Amino acid sequence: MVGNVSKQAGSVRLLVAQAERALSRGQINHALLLVHDFVERIITDPICTAQVFASRSLDQLCLHIGRQSQSGLGAIRVSPWPSGDDRPTLVYLVSRLQRSGGHSRVVMDVIRAQPDKRHLVLSTEVGGPSDWDYFTQLFATNDNVHFARAPRGNLQTRLTWIQSTLLASHPEHVHLFNHHQDSVAVAALVPELGLTGSFYHHGDHHLCLGVHLTHLTHVDFHPMGYHYCRDVLGVSNDYLPLTFADQDGSSESTAAVRNGNLTTATAARSNKVEIPYYASYVDTIPKILTATGGKHIHIGKLTPWAMRRIYAQMRRLQIDKDRLVYIQWTPSVWKTLQQHKVDVYLASFPYGAGLTLIEAMGAGIPVIMHQHMYSRVLSGLELAYPEAFRWSEPEDLLAHLANLSRARLEPERKLSRLRYERFHRPAILSAYLRDPDSTKLPVPPLASGFTPRYDEWAAWAGNQLTLARLLYQFAYRSWRRLRRWAS
Fold first, then answer.
1. Has this prediction a pTM greater than 0.85?
2. In the chain, is it the N or the C terminus that has fewer CB atoms within a 10 Å radius of its CB?
3. Domain holding 274: CATH number?
């Protein structure tokens, strides 16, 4: 179980000093908790989202913790692999694996792209319990994939287990996919272990530990993050676009001539769309149904509160309930969009979701992007083809949809598919993993016309965010606390 420290430091400088004092007394677990709980507070405060991305001081502190832990390691664990198997081993250090969400999918893609090697997935379980049954069944026929999770206990226990397992495994490369607040995973990979590795910056719209680990190759999955980390944070990084296996890019299922109004769709869980923001996804869906006269497909689990609110507004607007198709989870967003003959995909807001957008474009479906009030990262404009419609005010989105026809969308089907083929084919990932140094991938430029509206954000936040922010923090932190207890 992960616990909470009772006293919070008033600044990063004071927190580091407090952690250093704990380390001088041999209190490694307390130091790990200090870092974990500080980051947890930041990422559950919506006012900090896409404003604070990294902390060099906290990353250096994690390395200090990891060095002290590594120096005290006892007997090294036995390798999990049978003797006689001399294939090179790759280790994936994660905080948690979930069947939904893009980050677990990326881990699986990296594994599948290297079938000639052994793959050891180590989870700290700091992000909560993983969906182990799902992933072990997914690779049940693969003798070269092994899953292991840290033992239940405090953070120091997990750190010791991770470091000793890393040493026993003799990995050729370590792929670090840590959650934002996972001080254990970041502390584990100290340079003194003598391991080659990469940090995959998927915790990209919050403060995330590990951004400034200079002994690991820093990998960014999208142009917004690449340019920000390189130009603003001063990080030497690689660009590796998210890739997705081609599920048939034929747009016949969506382009077929048929009667009826437009079908729209969005794929995102509650953590992407149920966020305090001036444009509410929950409140906009009934208005979209009114504007199009068609159906909206939502893929991804929403809270019961959100569903009740959507249905209540639909009743008030006299919209039939069956015009909203709610799918909590699907093994393939790509195929689901095609099966429902989706005409246009609406990128989630206020937080964009990269991998599902790529699935939509791979399926040859036109996309509509939201220009976030202040953040390029949360907008994700650079992921879509430049001609995609973008909106800031809900009224602009509704007016666009009301005048949209399938004929107008037809040219965008090809643009969408071409964007997928140029940047997101699995061959790109395979080539990078074979030889990162020789794989020079083009980085799309930052989208033109993006103008942050900080003054409008400040005005809206000052008038409305206070209560919503407190309620969101309370609900989100309570949920995370329950999940930590389960781990």
1. yes
2. N
3. 3.40.50.2000
